[in-house]
Design a protein that fits this description.
The strands form 6 sheets. Strands 1, 2, 3, 4, 5, 6, 7, 8 and 9 form a 9-stranded mixed sheet that branches. The chain has a 5-stranded mixed sheet with strand order 10-11-14-12-13. The longest helix has 20 residues, at 489-508. The protein has 656 residues and is an alpha+beta fold. The chain starts with 15 loop residues before the first helix and ends with a helix. It has 19 helices and 25 strands.
């Protein structure tokens, strides 16, 4: 077999220019990479004002000017040398990196693939000095005119590497990436003024000395202020602690991409899976799967508690205590969402092709209409107790009348203040069934004169019924302090059922089930048979007992009582669950897996669109809206209700 040339080539030292161009392949991906590296240097120099100028999306020109400390004349050649920096000097410095740039290869890498001019002046210098470089050719330092600070001009990016240049996108696309990078750094440094000019047109101009909230709104769009909630956490009590301030968007602002999830650590924009997971987990059940929340999170940590030297572009980090940071962010964002009334409002948000939160307009990059500030609803007293009483009494058998469920009329009395010990702990699970006989007392319920149910003596009298109307047996219309509220009866009841199932699992560990007289046989593929064995412990927790009866079939021996009462077919339920497990990658022990299964069960047990409800049933469903956590959205993330404010009604009728 012939020997190839590749096997006998000698080892050679690469030319300096080629070394720098290889390094540039990691550091300089596109014009936005150059913008980021130069802005990092400007911020490290203590700039109070930074100007960014772009031409042709940064492909032809990038000029960044700052009023920072500047570079001494004799050090200008060293600034363009590879791996030369003033920011680290020993290995120990890498464990506590507090600057944005620190590797020392940025300017050398940029110079190897572009024409660069560096002009700088320190406060001690009588005048500015300038040095020019192109590829591996560096010109001598020359005197120049300029104020204290630094101006770096980068022209003709990738002029000497045409293979790299042809992979660049169109100028508008590259410009967008550059503006995104600069805007992110502007958000994370509110004390610094930023000006961005593209092809002679100013696209951003924010003054120095703003507060974090003012800067975030100035960049994202002032019209988003009613849709953003403040979140904060402060556990910065030692070297391992974390402090956080941020703005998180209402579920209506969820987007199809993660672009609107902006996370900063010690002023550095980062993409961290731990923090992104914490943020998305906080919104679980509030936004649809596959959509991403809008958020600006600014974290502060001791530099020794995080490693930022794990990615060439410094966008990824590694935390010393990952779980602590995750739980702190998750808790802060959840608390911010729980404090707010998340009901979408016509006057704040527009309709889009996929529902709320896709409206366009406004100066911000996410777009939303201006509107009134929300009036927070006061939390319902004894919310958890009310929910438990709701579902327990809803499914109790009436004494003396076998298999007959209590109507909502009796339920209304129980919600008036029944003590927890009055409820049988062995009560069956909620079926969500509607008692047709309850409609006979609808007029009495509307007047607050509901007769007391048999066996329910001693319960506190109910509150007067609110004004509630069912529309087309699908939507429920009522009012609150701000205006008209339209509720999707299935979505709201699904949220009620989901929260109850979650609480029951948390308290007792398993759901109540009943043994089937005739087991349901389900035929499965080999792959799904494997998933059954894997998910069996989880199935037992939710009350589904199965036994294999062949190489490709299982028998459902027991089934959750409340689903059985609703007429859900066990075989179909198991087959559907395994199909979803195969499609979505269910894994035992993951919170997301349990969430998806409980969501599926709650959906099947909830009141359906088309079910007629009595006035008393409608009243109690609306009252639960205040008692249930995250009642603004169903577990799938769809809104359970929308609001038409009085202001919007006045506007529609020409009163304002």
């Amino acid at each position: 077999m012939a020997t190839t040339d590749a096997t006998i080539r000698p080892i050679r030292r690469l030319p300096a220019l080629l070394v720098n161009q290889i390094a540039a392949g990691e550091v300089v991906e596109r014009p936005a990479s150059v913008v980021k590296e130069l802005l990092d240097n400007a911020l490290d120099a203590g700039a109070n004002r930074i100007t960014i100028e772009l031409e042709q999306g940064g492909i032809e020109l990038i000029r960044i000017t700052d009023d920072g400390a500047g570079i001494a004349t004799e050090q200008l050649p060293l600034a363009l040398a590879p791996h030369a920096t003033s920011k680290v000097s020993t290995v120990d410095d890498l464990d506590r990196i507090a600057t944005y740039g620190f590797r020392g290869e940025a300017l050398a890498s940029i110079t190897s693939v572009a024409r660069v001019s560096l002009r700088s002046r320190t406060a001690a210098d009588a005048g500015a000095s300038e040095i020019r470089a192109e590829g591996d050719r560096v010109e001598p330092v020359q005197p120049a005119a300029g104020a204290v600070g630094t101006c770096v001009t980068v022209r003709n990016l990738f002029f000497n590497t045409p293979a790299r240049r042809k992979f660049l996108r169109t100028p508008p696309t590259e410009q967008g990436h550059c503006v995104d990078i600069a805007s992110d750094l502007a958000i994370s440094h509110p004390a610094v003024g930023f000006t961005i000019t593209c092809d002679g047109r100013r696209v951003l101009d924010v003054p120095a000395g703003q507060s974090p909230r003012e800067r975030a709104l100035a960049v994202l769009g002032k019209e988003l202020e009613p849709e953003l909630l403040e979140a904060h956490v402060d556990t910065f009590d030692d070297s391992r602690g974390v402090a956080m301030w941020g703005l998180v968007g209402r579920p209506a602002l969820a987007r199809a991409t993660a672009k609107a999830m902006k996370i900063f650590l010690n002023g550095r924009p980062i993409r961290d899976k731990t923090l992104q997971h914490a943020l998305r987990e906080a919104y679980r059940g509030l936004i649809e799967p596959g959509r991403y929340p809008t958020a600006v999170l600014m974290l502060q940590m001791d530099p020794g508690a995080v490693d930022v030297n794990v990615h060439p572009q410094k966008t990824e980090v590694r935390f010393r205590d990952q779980s602590m940071v995750h739980s702190a962010v998750l808790r802060a964002v959840r608390e911010a969402l729980q404090r707010a009334d998340l009901t979408p409002d016509f006057s704040r948000t527009g309709f889009g092709s996929r529902g709320w939160g896709n409206g366009s307009g406004g100066a911000g990059f996410m777009g939303a209409g201006a509107g009134v500030d929300p009036v927070p609803l006061s939390p319902a007293p004894d919310a958890a107790g009310r929910i438990n009483r709701f579902v327990e009494y809803f499914t109790r058998q009436v004494p003396g009348r076998a298999n007959e469920r209590l109507s909502f009329d009796a339920l209304r009395q129980s919600l008036g203040g029944a003590a927890a010990h009055e409820i049988s702990p062995e009560a069956p699970f909620p079926g969500g069934s509607i008692d047709p006989s309850a409609s006979d007392t609808a007029s009495d319920a509307a007047q607050g004169e509901t007769p007391q149910a048999e066996g329910q003596e001693g319960l506190i009298a109910p509150r007067p019924a609110e004004r509630v109307l069912q529309v087309h047996n699908q939507y429920v219309v009522t009012e609150d302090e701000q205006g008209l509220v339209i509720v999707d009866q299935h979505a709201l009841h699904e949220r009620v059922m989901f929260e109850y199932l979650s609480a029951r699992l948390g308290a007792e560990g398993t759901l109540e089930s009943q043994r089937m007289l005739v087991p349901a046989v389900v035929q499965l593929s080999a792959a799904r048979m494997a998933r059954v064995d894997e998910l069996r412990p989880l199935l037992e927790r939710i009350g589904v007992g199965i036994e294999p009866i062949g190489p490709a079939s299982v028998a459902v021996q027991s089934f959750p009582t409340f689903l059985f009462d609703k007429g859900v077919e066990p075989g179909e339920f198991l087959a559907e669950m395994l199909e979803r497990a195969e499609a979505e990658g269910f894994a035992p022990g993951r919170e997301e897996t349990l969430h998806e299964i409980l969501d599926m069960m709650a959906c099947k047990a909830a009141i359906k669109a088309g079910d007629r409800m009595s006035q008393a049933e409608l009243v109690e469903l609306i009252r639960l809206r205040d008692a249930v956590d995250r009642s603004s959205n169903c577990p799938h993330g769809r809104p359970t209700s929308i609001r038409l404010s009085i202001r919007e009604l006045d506007k529609r009728f020409g009163r304002v």
